[in-house]
Design brief:
CATH superfamily of the largest domain: Ribosomal protein L1/L10, rRNA-binding domain
Number of domains: 2
Largest sheet: 4 strands, antiparallel
Radius of gyration: 19 Å
CATH architecture of the largest domain: 2-Layer Sandwich
Strand order of the largest sheet: 7-1-8-9
Number of strands: 9
CATH class of the largest domain: Alpha Beta
Number of helices: 8
Length: 231
């Protein structure tokens, strides 16, 4: 794939052979982000685990101190008082069977996160085949299957993100926008990394953090020294 002129200019500012300290890597991000929009900054963390084994799964959620810079649309599956609680606490969409029909019938996906009360999971389960592949299925580990819908909505709106391994044992997570600057990106990065390190499965053997790369949407990847992520 041919790289654009702006990308090639940015790539010159990054030493591909170097493993950067987190602070230095995140200070380079604004210099290499040349797009006309405020790019998202992502962290890509390769772990020394095997996601095919249930005892080596790494999954959870963490609230980034400065949020993601993105407005998150929350859909809540709830009934009665819990539906009212969801509406009062800023849910963008609230419903039950009616939402299942809308998603299935209209292929409607104008939302970013799905929260459900435990009693609604039987209904939500009917959407497993469409929500699952998009990573939208509510999950107790991520705090999105809960009776405390008010807290779930507030946390998500404040910048709660879910981290989980893909099939290649890599976690991909947004840590903010280029406009945040190095300090806020560093705070978010360290909060995410602390959560992932704490979530290390006891069955994991050898080096846990294999590689850590940060990159903006259109910018080159910057490799971070995995032994320095706690700094």
């Amino acid at each position: 794939m041919k790289k654009g002129k702006k990308y090639l200019e940015s790539a010159k500012l990054v030493d591909k052979a170097k493993l950067y300290d987190p602070a230095e890597a995140l200070s380079i991000i604004p210099q290499v982000s040349k797009a006309k929009f405020d790019e998202t900054v992502e962290a890509h963390i390769k772990l020394g685990v095997d996601s095919r084994h249930a005892d080596q799964q790494v999954r959870g959620a963490v609230v980034l101190p400065h949020g993601t810079g993105k407005t998150v649309r929350v859909l809540v599956f709830a009934k009665g008082d819990k539906a009212k609680e969801a509406e009062e606490n800023g849910a963008d969409f609230v419903g039950a069977e009616d939402l299942v029909t809308k998603i299935q019938g209209e292929n409607w996906f104008e939302f970013d996160v799905v929260v459900a009360t435990p009693d609604m999971m039987g209904v939500v389960g009917r959407l497993g085949r469409v929500l699952g592949p998009k990573g939208l299925m509510p999950n107790p580990k991520a705090g999105t299957v809960t009776m405390d819908v008010a807290k779930a909505i507030k946390d998500i709106k404040a910048g709660k993100i879910e981290y989980r391994l893909d099939k290649t044992n890599i976690i991909h997570c947004p840590i903010g926008k280029v406009s945040f600057g190095q300090e806020k990106l560093s705070d978010n990065f360290h909060t995410l990394m602390e959560a992932i390190v704490k979530a290390k499965p006891s069955a994991a053997k050898g080096q846990y953090l294999r590689s850590v790369v940060v990159a903006s949407t259109m910018g080159p990847g910057i490799k971070i020294n995995p032994t320095r992520v706690s700094e």
